[in-house]
């Protein structure tokens, strides 16, 4: 609380500037463009193609004997792209459930 010993001028300034820190109930959260639903779906689509490419690379590396020691690279790419797909899908599901629950 603000002490009563302050003058009118300081109380006025205190309440004026402190009112800017309040979060009104009607304010809508601003979602950045890179976290919008459209951008997330585009990222999922690209990651799906990367996943398919890495699965094809895994099969190709497994098929040729001289590439057996490099099979870790397409497997790693598949795991990372799969993780991105799963995490963005979970984010979209949480966002959808939040909207539906209102």
Task: Give the helices and strands, then pairings.
Layout: H1 8-18, H2 37-63, H3 72-101
Concise synopsis of the structure shown:
With 102 residues, this protein is mainly alpha-helical. Helices cover 67% and strands 0% of the residues.
The count of strands amounts to: 0
Number of helical regions? 3
Number of domains: 1
* Separation of the first and last Cα atoms: 35 Å
Write down the overall mean pLDDT.
83
What multimeric state do the chains show? single chain
Radius of gyration: 26 Å
Name the helix and strand elements from N-terminus to C-terminus, one letter apiece.
HHH
- Which residues form runs of ≥5 with pLDDT under 50? none
Strand content is under 5%
Description:
The protein is mostly helical and 102 residues long. The protein has one domain (29-101). The protein is 67% helix and 0% strand. It has three helices and no strands. α2 packs antiparallel against α3 (72-101). The longest helix has 30 residues, at 72-101. The chain is elongated, with a radius of gyration of 26 Å. The model has no long low-confidence stretch (mean pLDDT 83).
Tags for this model:
mainly alpha; 102 residues
């Amino acid at each position: 609380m603000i002490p009563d010993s302050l003058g009118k001028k300081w109380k006025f300034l205190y309440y004026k500037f402190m009112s800017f820190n309040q979060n009104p109930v009607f304010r809508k959260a601003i979602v950045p463009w890179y976290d919008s639903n459209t951008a997330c779906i585009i990222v999922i689509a690209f990651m799906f193609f990367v996943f398919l490419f890495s699965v094809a690379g895994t099969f190709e590396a497994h098929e040729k004997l001289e590439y057996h020691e490099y099979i870790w690279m397409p497997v790693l790419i598949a795991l990372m792209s799969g993780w991105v797909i799963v995490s963005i899908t979970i984010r979209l599901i949480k966002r959808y459930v939040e909207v539906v629950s209102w």
